[in-house]
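Dear colleagues,

As part of the handover before I leave the project, I'm documenting each prediction I ran so the next person doesn't have to rerun anything. This entry is a single chain, and its sequence is reproduced below.
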Amino acid sequence: MKELFVLIKSFFIFGIMATSLFIGGCGRKSSLTGTGGGNTLSAPTLSSPSNGATSQATSLTLMWETVTGATAYDVRISTAATFASTVSSQTDITALSASVSGLANNTTYYWEVNVTNADSTSAWSTSWHFTTMTASTVFPTMISIPAGTFQMGSTNANLYASPVHSVTLGAFTMSKTLVTQAQYQAVMGLNPSYFDSGSTWPVESVNWYDAVWFCNKLSKLAGLDTVYTYTGIYQGSGYDTLTSVAINYAKNGYRLPTEAEYEYANRAGTTTDYYWGRNYPPTTTADTLAIDSNAVWYYNSPNSTQPVAMKKPNAWGLYDMSGNLWEWCNDWYGDYSSTAQTNPSGPAAPTSYGSYRVLRGGSWVSYGASGLCAAYRVSVYPVYVSGSYGFRVVCGPR
């Protein structure tokens, strides 16, 4: 009688297991364990982006947690919760992440991960979803800068910008603000900023190569020509480097401004040291208050950057052309010519000063007011990153 009870109990337990397996097998995935080779296998747990996340980049990295015994993972992405069709899939992944690019703006995507072990047992995760940001978040607002001639440089020795010389520039467009963290995240799929404070804050902790790489990627997203060419990408510990970079100014894509374009746009038709109509050094309370109204600098910043466009714009509608962040320019650093120039782009190669690129505009750590002057220039190695370095973009062939 005891043996009969055990036998009946065994059939009962087996029936429950069989029913569970049958029910699990009718769907796409098992929520807890997988089957296939006889061994149980835990389903993957998704980790990033979080379920229901919004304003995600169109290029991003999907991440999940490790599963004991896993030999490979598969990922699929769909715009349908039923996964009736997929827009992207990757198989035989051995890492715990997958990079995805080319997603559409303002679209909800569903994604899930399948895990497999050596016995061909597999298990699907539960599906998560995220929504990408709108196109207006990705592409900067561009301001038309008119063609013209101006006097570039300064006779003030404290600004390192002599001799003064005549420069003529063709028309171009320049981004209204510094590139924001949201824009950089949308294009590059990451946010390197030390002051990771919000989408409207300027991206910083980027070197010259990061800015160049961003410009090319933004050009591709916009369907424009890429301005920069390079032979390779080196992703180091804390910095990126592009090898053998060449710049084609005839292309119509996004790029960094030349040093001349930056000063011309900063001045916006003014001839004073500051684009708000005053000169260096500030000698009165009114001079200092004028700086506070127009620029984020040492004396009015809370030891950090501030959101873009919080101060007054210049006469052409550009914000933060002085202060908040030093801004990368295309040029190698070198001496000015005393002769008149048209559309100058700086030295063709590193000069006797060294392999330095130019920074302009001053930043939130500018202790002295000289760095905020339109003509002031700084030389920095292009691989350097800092919480006070950022950039804006220009667009249009020359």
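The domain at 25-133 is CATH 2.60.40.10 (Immunoglobulin-like). The chain has two domains: 25-133, 137-395.

All the best with the project,
I.
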